[in-house]
């Protein structure tokens, strides 16, 4: 008689590694990327991660119920491969601020990593910390009254943690951003030092002398977890994992910066250390994230739901190729490298196991387009060319902002929605992206014609 094997919970058989890394933003990407590299480093037994969620305390509770363990479900052309990742020693809610301060006071804690989304850096129009935001002012007031007061913003939490480290004499530390953001190390340094300055010039001076802000280009397509993923993991492993993470086989991590207090031997897991990540960052943000945004908005207008569906549509595929041709002219890599990179992206996008929803990628467009599409658009106009691929991305975003295609999920969307629904939408949206672009009559005409082409029934 056959019987179904019992579903076991996921539990550690050996102690978790000692915490020496603190992470903010315990989402799926951190667990598919930095936590995986840490678990695969040659010295993994010495490097545990304490990770804080952003807004979901239940995510920490689920992980702690299984001792920080979780299954990474690597979905490739050759099938699904489950792997238990062991580097997450403990998960905490974002509100557990006392625990965060306590960890930063420990000299053995050597690295703070971040995956908190672009929005959490709270950048203002000048590219630095927006000190006029109420939440920044509230955090600064609270910390001036009591340096251990609970605070909510990422720059405020980091400044408070570093002030606590300084007071404890715990020595230098490295903060490493792993967000999709151009110059992510410099941006993190700018917002944290500016926040420290609001508190006490002594803290700012200590941060400048003792804290390294490293940069990194991160890449691994990691969608959200669905019930199908939970069921597939149970089927493959015979264990019940409340919090598995689906991802693709490809992974890349290029890092630049100093780690005065040490770091895991991430190279042994495949990370690459370079002097300057800028070119890698641009290539990835423009070619991958830029084409993702194009597919998210244009594919949504055509009724597609996932990247694999959208890129299989010859119309979307040709717009992506146009956009890549334009962006590649401004990337400092040999043509052959860029060709290979593009081919690899098409393979990755076509992966049927990675159901990456356009709606997830479309979120937060008003912060994403300026970094992912506008640089190539500006560079093409400076070279006196009219970039049809970039124009298609902007036109598709306008359609999305008008409520066609994927729903708008963007806390900063109000001015963009107002522009997209104005009497002169193309000029107003281009001006919002870059004032110079709105005055460019030829570009306005091109985006307008792409918008007409994308209208329901025309595409
Ligand atoms: N998913 C990917 O394929 C991928 C790949 C490369 C880089 N990234 C980077 O990682 C980031 C997170 O992606 P994800 O897929 O893990 O998303 P996710 O939604 O699974 O997790 C996001 C994490 O950031 C936290 N967060 C969000 N807003 C925050 C805020 N204001 N303050 C503090 N924490 C906040 C969330 O609570 C959560 O812990 C992305 O924004 C991107 O910059 C993601
Ligand atoms: O994660 P976001 O929201 O910054 O961007 C959406 C996707 O483009 C992104 O998650 C990519 O899949 C990822 O950057 C691949 O490494």
From TrEMBL:
InterPro entries: 6-PGluconate_DH-like_C_sf (IPR008927), 6PGD_dom2 (IPR013328), Mannitol_DH (IPR000669), Mannitol_DH/Oxidoreductase (IPR050988), Mannitol_DH_C (IPR013118), Mannitol_DH_CS (IPR023027), Mannitol_DH_N (IPR013131), NAD(P)-bd_dom_sf (IPR036291). Residues 276-447 form the Mannitol dehydrogenase C-terminal domain. It comes from Kineococcus halophytocola. Residues 20-267 form the Mannitol dehydrogenase N-terminal domain. The lineage of its organism: Bacteria, Bacillati, Actinomycetota, Actinomycetes, Kineosporiales. Its EC number is 1.1.1.17. Keywords: NAD, Oxidoreductase. It comes from the Bacteria. Transmembrane segments: none annotated. PANTHER family: MANNITOL DEHYDROGENASE 2-RELATED (PTHR43362:SF1), MANNITOL DEHYDROGENASE DSF1-RELATED (PTHR43362). Belongs to the mannitol dehydrogenase family. It is an enzyme of class 1 (oxidoreductase). Gene3D superfamilies: N-(1-d-carboxylethyl)-l-norvaline Dehydrogenase, domain 2 (1.10.1040.10), NAD(P)-binding Rossmann-like Domain (3.40.50.720). It catalyses: D-mannitol 1-phosphate + NAD(+) = beta-D-fructose 6-phosphate + NADH + H(+). This is Mannitol-1-phosphate 5-dehydrogenase. GO terms for molecular function: oxidoreductase activity.
């Amino acid at each position: 008689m056959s019987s179904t094997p019992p579903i076991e919970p996921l539990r550690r058989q050996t102690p978790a590694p000692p915490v020496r890394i603190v992470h903010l933003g315990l989402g799926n990407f951190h667990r598919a990327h930095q936590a995986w590299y840490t678990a695969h480093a040659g010295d993994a037994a010495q490097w545990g991660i304490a990770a804080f969620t952003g807004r979901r305390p239940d995510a920490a509770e689920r992980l702690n119920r299984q001792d920080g363990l979780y299954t990474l479900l690597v979905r490739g052309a050759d099938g699904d491969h489950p792997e238990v990742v062991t580097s997450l020693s403990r998960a905490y809610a974002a509100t557990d601020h006392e625990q965060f301060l306590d960890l930063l006071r420990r000299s053995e804690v050597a690295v703070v990593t971040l995956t908190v989304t672009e929005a959490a850096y709270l950048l203002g129009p000048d590219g630095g910390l927006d000190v006029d935001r109420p939440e920044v002012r509230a955090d600064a007031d609270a910390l001036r009254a009591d340096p251990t007061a609970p605070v909510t913003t990422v720059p405020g939490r980091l400044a408070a943690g570093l002030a606590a480290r300084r007071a404890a004499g715990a020595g230098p530390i490295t903060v490493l951003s792993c967000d999709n953001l151009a110059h992510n190390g410099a941006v993190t340094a700018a917002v944290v030092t500016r926040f420290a300055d609001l508190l006490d010039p002594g803290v700012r001076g200590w941060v400048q002398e003792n804290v390294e802000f490293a940069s990194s280009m991160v890449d691994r397509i990691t969608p959200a977890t669905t019930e199908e993923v939970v069921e597939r993991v149970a089927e493959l492993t015979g264990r019940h994992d409340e919090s598995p993470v689906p991802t693709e086989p490809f992974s890349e991590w290029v890092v630049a910066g100093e780690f005065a207090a040490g770091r895991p031997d991430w190279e042994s897991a495949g990370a690459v250390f370079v002097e300057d990540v800028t070119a890698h960052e641009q290539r990835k943000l423009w070619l991958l994230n830029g084409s993702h945004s194009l597919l998210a908005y244009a594919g949504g207008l055509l009724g597609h739901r996932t990247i694999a569906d959208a890129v299989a549509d010859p119309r979307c595929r040709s717009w992506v190729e146009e956009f890549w041709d334009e962006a590649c002219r401004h990337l400092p890599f040999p043509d052959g490298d860029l060709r290979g990179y593009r081919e690899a992206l098409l393979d990755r996008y076509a992966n049927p196991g990675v159901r990456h929803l356009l709606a997830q990628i479309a979120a937060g467009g008003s912060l994403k387009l300026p970094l992912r599409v506008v640089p190539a658009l500006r560079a093409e106009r400076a070279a006196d060319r009219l970039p049809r691929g970039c124009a298609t991305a902007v036109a598709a975003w306008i359609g999305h902002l008008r409520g066609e295609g994927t729903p708008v999920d963007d806390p900063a969307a109000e001015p963009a929605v107002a522009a997209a629904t104005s009497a002169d939408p193309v000029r107003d949206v281009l001006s919002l992206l870059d004032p110079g672009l709105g005055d460019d009559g030829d570009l306005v005409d091109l985006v307008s014609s792409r918008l007409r082409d994308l209208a329901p029934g025309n595409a």
